[in-house]
Design a protein that fits this description.
single chain, mainly beta, four-stranded antiparallel sheet, 8 strands, about 45% strand, disordered N terminus
Length: about 120
């Protein structure tokens, strides 16, 4: 069963980002509602993906941040992913892969919301 959308967030490049709460996807749509792409949110290295994504927020310089957690791990460590919000390209932190900005950490247990500020 697919969960309801967490929110729709528009930005200055006139596209909308549509995350589904506690799912594995972040989908980008244009102003007409046509799907642009699905951002690569897998960070657990498992097939099928064992991670779920929570809310998202926009940061400075066209950055999109989202939180997620490994649902297959009892400790449910959380992680933060970062993307270029105009292109959807993953923007990992130095030493990380994919879109991982903050590596899995049990201090973020099952995170579902995130806020960014300048």
């Amino acid at each position: 069963m697919r969960s309801a959308p967490a929110r729709i967030c528009g930005d200055e490049v006139a596209d909308a980002t549509f995350p589904t709460c506690l799912s594995s996807d972040i989908r980008r749509y244009d102003a007409t509602g046509a799907l642009l792409d699905t951002l690569p949110t897998g960070f657990t290295g498992t097939t099928p993906r064992g991670n779920h994504m929570g809310g998202l927020t926009f940061g400075e310089v066209r950055r999109l941040f989202t939180v997620g957690f490994d649902a297959m791990n009892y400790a449910a460590p959380g992680t933060i992913l970062r993307f270029d919000r105009a292109t959807g390209d993953p923007l990992p932190a130095e030493g990380q892969s994919g879109a991982v900005f903050v590596a899995e950490d049990t201090r973020m247990k099952r995170p579902v919301e995130i806020t960014a500020w300048p």
